[in-house]
Amino acid sequence: MKKLSLSFNNAIILTFVLLRACRTGQQKPGVRQSTGVYQYDNEKKTAVARKSGPYYSDRQAVTGKNGMVASAHPEASQVGVAILKAGGNAVDAAVAVQFALAVVYPGAGNIGGGGFMVFRDKTGQAFTLDYREKAPEKADKDMYLDSAQNVIPRLSITGHLASGVPGSVAGMAEAHRRFGKLTWAQVLQPAIDLAEKGVALTEREALGLNRTKKSFLQVNPEKRYFMKADTTDWKTGELLIQKDLGQTLRRIQQQGRAGFYEGETARLLVAEMQRGGGIITENDLKNYQAVWRDPLVGTFRNYKIITMPPTSSGGVALLQLLRLVEPYPLRRWGWNSDSTVQVMIEAERRVYADRAKFLGDPDFVKVPVNQLIDKDYLKTRWSDFTFAKATDSRAIKGGTLPGYESLETTHFSVVDQEGNAVAITTTLNGGYGSRVVVGGAGFLMNNEMDDFSVKPGVPNMFGLIGNQANAIAPGKRMLSSMTPTIVEQAGKLYMVVGTPGGSTIITSVYQTILNVLEHGMTMQQSVNALKFHHQWLPDNTLFENGAFSDETIQKLQSRGYKLEQLTNSLGRMDCILLRPDGTLEGASDPRADNTSVGF
Ligand code: DON
C-alpha cells in the first residue's frame, strides 16, 4: 500500500512536470527549449540555480473581458479598476493610478516627478503627453561642476539641487481636462483615502523604506516622513499613513493644478528648496506646463508602433532597434540564440551611440527624428557589422565606465471597456528620488536633473553619456529613456507596453515586443522571459541569470562579446495584450510587486 501511494505521488509529480513542460512548449512556438534548470525561489523572491531560462518565473497572466490595469502595486491596480467600474474611461483610471502610486509606491510613484503618457483612443487616434520635469529658471549648464570643471559627486542625485520642476500634477490635470469622463474629485479620492487611512506595506516596500531611512535622515534631518514614530524598521503589513500627503492631495482635488503649483503647496515646496539650498522658485512652478506632442509612429513588419517622441529618447531608440533587426530572421534563429542576441546587441550599440549624439529636448535642440528612424539611414548603420566578431564600441565612439544605481521608475498600462488604451511611465528618477521630502506637504522630490548630461562625455547614474543636445539650460527638459508604447495590429489595439529601468527601459521594451511578435510568446511569457541589455558604453552585455544558454554564451564570447551576468534583474514590465477573442491579457512583472487586475 505504502509502495503504491509513493509511486502514485511520483506519478502525479511526473505528470505535473510533463504537463507543464508540454504546456510551456505549446505556448511558445519559436522559442528554443531551454537546456538548463529553471527554478524560482519564493522565499528569496529570486530565480536560483538555473543554467538557462527562458523565464524568470512561471507567473500566469490575469485575464479580463471589460478592462485591465497593470501597475507596480496591487492597491494602485485595484484603484484603476474601481474607477473603470464606476464608469470612468482609461484616462480617468490612469490619472487615479498615477495619484494612487504616489501614495502606495513612494519609491517611484509620484507627484514630485514627471512622466509621459501615450494614449490611443477607441477610434485609433493617438496622443502623447509630455509631463517631464524641467530645469529650473536658475539652472545653469555648469551647476554640478566645481571650479576646476569637475563633476561634484552626487550633487545631481541627492538633495535639493537634484530636482527638476515637477510635471506630474500638470500632466494629470491636462490629461483629465481633455479626455476625462468622471470628475476630477472622483479620480483623486482613492489616493486621498489611501494616504489618510494608510496602506499596508508590502515586503518590498518595507525593505525599501528601511534601506533608505539613513539617507532620508541625512537629507531631511528634522523630519520623520516615511518612518515609524519610534524609528524602528517597518515590517510587512504595517500601515503607512501619510497625513500631510493627504492634505496636499486634497488641495489638488479642490483646486486642480493650482493646488500644487500655486498657493499652500507651492509655498511649502519653495520653502523646502530654500531650506536645503535648492533653486526651484514660485515662478518655475507657476510656469510649468505639460505639452501634447505628436506621437511617434512607425512600423515593424505588419505592426504599427505608437510611442513617445523626444523629450524621451525611448520611442526613437525603440523604432531604430526594431527596424535594424527587421531584415533578420529572428524567429527562425530562435529566442536568444547566438545570432538573435548578436544582431540585437549590435543594434543596441549603434542606437545608444545615436542617442548620446542627437537626442535632447525638441523645444531646445533640433532632433533629427525622421532621419534617425529612416530605413536607408539604418541600413548604413550595419555597414561595419560582421557576424564573425563583436564591433568595438570605441570604433563607434569613445567613453568611460559608469556605476549603476538602484532602479525605480514605474510604468502602468490601462485598457477600458471601449478599447481606449493608456501607457504611462512616470518617475522620480532614482529610488525615492532626491530623498528630499517637502516639509508639511509630505511628498518626495525627483532627482531628474541627473538625466541631463551634466558634463559632455561624463556618464550619468545609468552610465548614459550625452553632449550639447542634452546639456542643462533653464526651462529645458532632461532627456529620458522612458518608452511607454502601444502596438497596433491590422488597425486594432494589440499591446500596451512599458517598464522602468533607466537606460535599460528601451531594451526591455524592445525585447518584450519582439518576444511576442517574433517568438510567439504570450504577453505574460514575454514579461517573464529573462532579459539582457547593451547600451554602447560601457561595452558589455548585461544579462539576467539564465537569459542565455551555455551555447549562446560560449558562441558570443568566442566572437569577442563581453558578457556580465547580473545579480539583480532587468525590468518591471506592466503590459496588456488584446487577444484575438477580445480577452485582455494583463501581464505584470514577477520581479516585484507588480499586479494586473482585470474584470
Ligand atoms: O527618464 C529616464 O530615463 C529615467 N529618469 C528613468 C529612471 C528609471 O527608470 C529608474 N528606474 N528604474
Spell out the blueprint of helices and strands.
Layout: H1 2-27, E1 40-41, E2 46-47, E3 62-64, E4 68-71, H2 74-85, H3 90-104, E5 114-120, E6 126-131, H4 168-179, H5 184-197, E7 199-200, H6 203-219, E8 239-240, H7 243-255, H8 258-261, H9 263-276, H10 282-287, E9 291-293, E10 296-300, E11 303-307, H11 314-325, H12 330-333, H13 338-358, H14 369-372, H15 375-381, H16 393-396, E12 407-415, E13 421-430, E14 485-489, E15 492-497, H17 504-517, H18 523-528, E16 532-533, E17 541-543, H19 550-558, E18 563-565, E19 574-578, E20 584-588, E21 595-598
Helix pairs in contact: 2-3, 3-4, 3-5, 5-7, 11-13, 11-17, 13-19
The structure holds 6-diazenyl-5-OXO-L-norleucine (DON).
Bound molecules: 6-diazenyl-5-OXO-L-norleucine
Helical percent range?
25-40%
**Number of beta strands:** 21
Task: Assign an overall shape.
Answer: globular
Describe the overall structure.
This is Glutathione hydrolase proenzyme. Keywords: Acyltransferase, Glutathione biosynthesis, Hydrolase, Transferase, Zymogen. Its EC number is 2.3.2.2, 3.4.19.13. L-glutamate binds at residues 132, 427-429, 451, 480-481, 502. Belongs to the gamma-glutamyltransferase family. With 599 residues, the chain is α+β, with helices and mostly antiparallel strands. The protein has 2 domains: 2-61 and 294-385 and 483-598, 4-Layer Sandwich (Glutamine Phosphoribosylpyrophosphate, subunit 1, domain 1), CATH 3.60.20; 80-113 and 126-290 and 433-459, no CATH class. Helices cover 36% and strands 16% of the residues. The protein has 19 helices and 21 strands. The chain has helices at residues 2-27, 74-85, 90-104, 168-179, 184-197, 203-219, 243-255, 258-261, 263-276, 282-287, 314-325, 330-333, 338-358, 369-372, 375-381, 393-396, 504-517, 523-528, 550-558, and strands spanning 40-41, 46-47, 62-64, 68-71, 114-120, 126-131, 199-200, 239-240, 291-293, 296-300, 303-307, 407-415, 421-430, 485-489, 492-497, 532-533, 541-543, 563-565, 574-578, 584-588, 595-598. The protein has a 7-stranded antiparallel sheet with strand order 3-20-19-15-14-11-10. Strand 17, helix 19 and strand 18 (563-565) form a beta-alpha-beta unit. It is globular. The model is unreliable at 1-42, 45-51 and 398-406 (pLDDT under 50). 6-diazenyl-5-OXO-L-norleucine (DON) is lined by residues 407-409, 427, 429, 448, 451, 480-482, 500-502, 505.
